[in-house]
Amino acid sequence: MRMDLNQAASGLAPSTPRYRTRHGKPPMYHRVTETLRRRLVEGNWAAGVKLPTLREMAEEFKVSTNTIRSALRILEKEGCVYHVPEVGAFVHPSYPTRTGLRTAIALAMIDLGGGFEMGIARGVEHACQERGWGLQIYDARTDATIEGSNLTRLTNSDTRGGIVMPIGNNANLEHLVKLKLAGYPVVLVDRGIIGLNVDVVESDNEKGALLATECLIRHGHHRLFMVTFPISPVAETSIVSRVRGFEQAMLAHGLEPTRGSMMWIDPEVSARGVREGHRWLAGREAAVPVLKTLTGPIGIFALNDYAAWGVVEACRELRLRIPDDVSVVCFDDSDITRALAPRLTVVAQQPGEIGRKAVELLERRLQPGGLEL
User: Fold this and answer.
1) Cα(308)–Cα(142) distance, rounded to whole angstroms?
2) What is the CATH number of the domain that holds 80?
3) Does residue 335 sit in the same domain as residue 240?
4) Span 146-168, mean pLDDT?
5) Each residue's pLDDT tens digit, 93-136
6) Which domain range does residue 171 map to?
7) Number of domains in the chain
8) pLDDT greater at residue 360 or residue 235
9) Is 245 within a domain?
């Protein structure tokens, strides 16, 4: 079964990848603003040129002239256009169109060897192509030292901002803070970092975990476990949210979550598994000790597809049957989960959409004056 966080499935409520910024869904005039801003950047109108009239733009966008006025007021505050009473709006003479400056951004990823990460990268790449932007890609290969070097290089590159999916142990939090202090715009994807106040684009991880856990409960499971990384004061927000969703579902059904409900993944084992080409290793190592001591059917919610893969390997080793002895649900509808036998119930994310929205958000930050969201 596939529980999609973007499209209702099996009676589950939809939830789209979202910005974590100061406001909720942008009003209609933001759509007009973004389109006009993109045309300005692409050089559709040269500096000093008069824009189409309010009526002409209202007819094109199928909105009211008041909506167009609201969009132009934002562009005027940003220094993109200026208004002459009784005449109209003009492109500001100093506005940097593509003819004067080609935008390039950076994409720094934890690891491009995974399907979910590659999905985000493709979304970023396609969004950059639509805008005529250049893209520099940095792959840390789950190595914190490489990631630190990559992040250091960003401010010395010719990129104007970066999209980052950081390594979960936050070994390079200092580098991210330095980027922020240097005024280098950064958008994190898939995970935020507690205490780091930057923009984040991520799925509704808490809701996804709650739905996954409730799926196990609906199938009669009351002995529930979660395979996850440990929680720390600087843990990534996606882990914290998924643990919270797991625990909330248990409490809502009269079950008591405890530390014994957790199968803890060792970050060092996880990194070693990636280096050795055994990405399932950490999930297996977390699951085997607990599974050895249990009798009777249990339900397991795995943090991601690799953790679920590890649980499947552990069950195979211990001759436990899925789903008769152990039921498994997890995040990510990936090539990995689709290849596992038997097929698992998954919470599907939309990595391409996450990447696209990250570019969209970064674009707003790169406008003159830095659009306040």
Assistant:
1) 19
2) 1.10.10.10
3) yes
4) 90
5) 666 554 444 578 999 999 888 888 999 999 999 999 888 888 88
6) 102-203+352-365
7) 3
8) 360
9) yes
Q: Which residue has the tokens 């009269």?
A: 254
Boundary (domain end) residue, out of 36, 63, 91: 91
| Consecutive H or E run containing 238 | helix 237-252
- Half-sphere exposure of residue 371: CA atoms within 13 angstroms, side-chain side: 23
Instruction: Give the whole-angstrom CA distance, residue 103 versus residue 128.
Output: 9
| Bridge partners, 163 (sequence order) | 107, 187
Pair (72, 176) in one structural domain: no
**Cα of 271 vs its chain's centroid, Å:** 21
Is residue 267 one of the residues assigned to a domain? yes
- Radius of gyration over every alpha carbon of the chain, rounded to an integer in angstroms: 24
DSSP 343: P
Distance, in Å, from the CA atom of 313 to the CA atom of 288, rounded to the nearest integer, reads 9
Task: Give the whole-angstrom CA distance, residue 206 versus residue 216.
Answer: 16
Q: Which of 304, 310, 317 is nearest to 347 (CA)?
A: 304
**Which residue from 220, 164, 163, 140 is spatially nearest to 360, judged by alpha carbons?**
163
Among residues 37, 69, 91, the one where a domain terminates is 91
Question: Same domain, yes or no, for 171 and 77?
Answer: no
Q: What is the CATH number of the domain that holds 183?
A: 3.40.50.2300
Please check whether residues 164 and 227 belong to one and the same domain. no
Distance CA 295, CA 355 (A): 43
What span, in angstroms and rounded, lies between the C-alpha atoms of 203 and 6? 9
Per-residue pLDDT tens over the stretch 60-88: 999 999 999 999 998 888 788 888 777 78
- Rounded to whole angstroms, how far apart are CA atoms 241 and 176? 21
**Whole-number pLDDT of residue 326:** 96
Asked whether the beta carbons of 5 and 208 are under 8 A apart, the reply is: yes
Q: Give the sheet arrangement for strand 186-189, strand by strand.
A: 18-20, 199-202, 186-189, 162-165, 104-109, 134-139
Longest dimension (CA), the chain: 81
**Tokens coding 225:** 């476990």
Q: Are 76 and 51 in a shared domain? A: yes
Give domain status of residue 297, yes or no.
Answer: yes
Sign of the dihedral through C-alpha 346, 347, 350, 355: negative
Dihedral angle of Cα 274, 275, 278, 281, to the nearest 10 degrees: -70
pLDDT at 95: 62
Judge whether 18 lies within some domain.
no
